[in-house]
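hi support,

uploading two proteins for the ticket. first:
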Amino acid sequence: MLVVEDDKLIATMFGDFLGRKGFRVIYAADGLEAYKAVLTEKPHVVLTDLMMPKLDGFGLFDALRSVPDFNAIPVILITSSLQPEDEVKAFDKGFFDFIAKPVREETLITRVRRALQFRERKYQLT
């Protein structure tokens, strides 16, 4: 599980939520660092903030989708943006899910589990 979040406190909170449920969490503070982490760690799910330095959530998604090996990784966009067009744009681009901040622990865990189940089913079909 890769958590991409430039706010260290929020990243730690997400990591705590996920860690309590047994997920192994790796962190990246921006989109460029996240891209490098995907290359080396090959996470099963990516949770990314929208607004980040160096490469935002949309840029990270585009970069990941340009590599065929990473097309099966579900990417969940998390944002504090209240712009409805951001959610529409995220789904139009192909993000697996969209979560608005503030994020409740139950919501995060449910969405991550759903993404993992989707990934497992996708691999079983190929």
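and the second one:
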Amino acid sequence: MRRVRKETRAHQPAASPPIQTVAPLDDGTVALSLIQALIPLGLKAVQDALQQEVTALAGARYAHRDGHAGIARWGSQAGSIFLADQKVPIIVHRVRDRDAGTEVPLATYAQLQTPRARDVGLFRRVLGGLSCREYEAAAEAVPEAFGLAKSSVSRRFIGASAHTLRAFHERRHDGREWLVLLLDGKSFAADQVVIALGVTSTREKRVLGLVQTATENKRVCAAFLRELIERGFRAPTGLLVVLDGAKGLRAAVRDVFGDDVPVQRCQWHKRENVVSYLTTSLQVIWRRKLQAAYQHATYEDAKRALQKLVTELAKLNESAARSLEAGLEDTLTLHRLDVFAELGTSFKTTNLIESVMARIEAKTRRVGRWRTSDQKQRWCAATLLHIEQNFRRVKGCKHLPLLQRALTGKLPVRLALA
């Protein structure tokens, strides 16, 4: 007679602990970033990470009573993940809660379905000059990758730049003591984009904002300046405004900050306006004369030299003489504040903001067609924030306390109360 061994069943365990989603690959952030950077080894790492999470939830394959009670493997299905900026097909194992009759999502898979860091990689490449048409050929080589067509790349760039534009328009300027405000406009397709750049008492240089307008008119620019004040722009010890001489900007500054705010008109623009009335053969000579007059260190000497040039110009070209006289005092504001020798290199012209304009043009010149206002502003804001990361301190920044002392007592009441 065969002997039958009786197997005693172990007592049933108490109620199973609640299902907890396994943190993907330890803390997830660092490991997932590494996976997305490793091509093609990332595919193998992803499969291992997914299998690890499935095992933690449902136990090892063919094993009993591992993992959570009621959780079972449920086959597999086709899916896709992002490795760097590329969408790659992958087989995903499914896990199901039998008791609840619902699918148990895999945290690792969910995270890998989102492009790396809000499409930062793609965003930087397109902003750096790689066109949407060329992106697929220039991306990392994963033969199975898909979703890199021009339209897909364009949609992802639009999403990333829209997020950047929203953050740019909403960011605050509180907690800083502003000393210098530079304003200038740039032609952008059929429009003008007016950009504001600020310099703080702690030597920080920062893009304050932008506004799209048909022309640099007083109404739009004044509203733009008031918006900056609403977002925290403050100059408690006084403010120097640097302009290129545009009448609309000058009127807007006077309307918002008052008549007493010191305005430094760009000496380079003034010089070029004057010599434009002269013949080509005389322009080189008069550039040198005007430059030499402005280089005098004191206000009295510089004004005396310029008035002498006005008299000399009147005999040669009356229109050029009137151009030099118009707004002459504004071109000597740094001299009048007695800081020209120390800070003239940085603030006697609008070169600080002109260089920003040139870099915007370099970044956006590959855009073949500007379709909407949103597109223009997205590109401008994205480029400005990218440029801002590499800003250097202004030349002569160690002398900013001199400017701060010179501005004390010249602050318009309306700015102090803003």
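thanks. also noticed: The chain has a mean pLDDT of 77.
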